[in-house]
Amino acid sequence: MLTLCDRVPEDISGNIMLDWTKEVVVTGFKGSFEGTQDDVSSVIIDELQKVDVENRILLLIKLDASYEEVMKKIPELFTEHQEFVLHLASYSEQNKTTIFIEQKAFMSGYTKPDKNEFIPEGNRVKSESKEQELVTKVNVDDLVKELTEKCGLNGQKYGGLTVEKSEDPGRFIEGYTYFLSLDANPSSRLLVKIPAFQGECTKEAVASPECIGDVADMLTMCNRMRVDTNYTRDVVVTGFDTPFEDFDENPSAVVVDELMKIPIENVKIFPHKIPVAYEAVTEKLPELRKNCPDDVLHLATHSVRNTIYFQQKAFSHGYCREDINGYVPEGNKIEDEDEEEEQKKLKPFVDFDYLVEEVTEKCGLDGERYGGLKVEKSDDPGRFVGGYLYYLSIREGPVNTLYINVPPFEGECTKEAVANVIREVIRFLTRNDF
Fold this sequence. Notes:
Elements: E1 22-30, H1 40-48, E2 56-64, H2 67-80, E3 84-90, E4 98-102, E5 104-106, E6 133-135, H3 140-151, E7 162-166, H4 173-184, E8 189-194, H5 203-207, H6 212-220, E9 233-240, H7 251-259, E10 267-274, H8 278-289, E11 295-301, E12 307-311, E13 314-315, E14 345-346, H9 352-363, E15 374-378, H10 385-396, E16 400-406, H11 415-431
Parallel strand pairs: 1-2, 1-3, 3-8, 4-7, 9-10, 9-11, 11-16, 12-15
Antiparallel strand pairs: 4-8, 5-6, 12-16, 13-14
């Protein structure tokens, strides 16, 4: 399984980089709500300001309860922040003390005017999405169960406060916001609807680290955020299309082609072939991430026979080898890294021992099959274009990212055999926690 998120990247000496934090954007709505002085979600935002969570940054935002505000602010928000987003909204139902975690958002049906008497054109979300409904990839059933157990919400605590899954976010501003959010990235977005405070169901109880505060924390805890396997996972796979040594075709590009011949259940692969050039990978990276994939897999070729390497680290400095254009990065370092700083290394959140064990077993790599093909972990991705891309990709965060060196094809170590192993790696990444 993927390791816990508190296994943060380390510097070159193995010390934890304490500034590697995860950002959680939390939105609420300001203004009054159905007779109350302040919207409940706004009050919770104020309470969350009092919460201090280690290695977490809570970016708390209050939005005007208007469609125009949401249409303007939400896209701007995702341009700057691509990690975890928790939307809070109020609802009114007399004597109801239930927190609803919404699973779906809908494109149309927005007929209720906002405070400015504005109604969206066509009663629809302003989006290029072709889907009528979007579903979060967070496993809401598991989240509800864990919150209920951890917080002891047995119907008596906090005035009978409970947590439930819902598939009806409403067709008002909060539902409109949620659709825009899921359209940007369904993997780490949630809408939570909060009841009015009454009796023991207080603002402090709802905003406590055991309740809403814990939902925000859960979004960043990889070991506790389980993705529902019924959803299709989007996986970006890259290879290099520049010839390798005596091969007319680069084996990494050949493997990318092979992967597309046999579908993987609940996985959609987005293949990319990139020239072996530093500027090419730098320019390509935004395209690789623009649709917020769940996993990113970078393939490159090495000359070690019958061995596939899973690279555990990426390095910031040392790129002195010329690419196909004769170019070397300025200062022999990753773009935007301080030349005066000591070399950094980044690590993906992958349990490599378990990955090697699982793939070896699943593929039957007993030392004889596929001409003795084996998989191993490695700490040396090289200081060339592939390693350069790996560092950039991990730094981009927050999705699973892995760099793999594949061998040249010879004898029983065929392109089909290598592709079968890479398919199992993809299954491993997509069936384990994000």
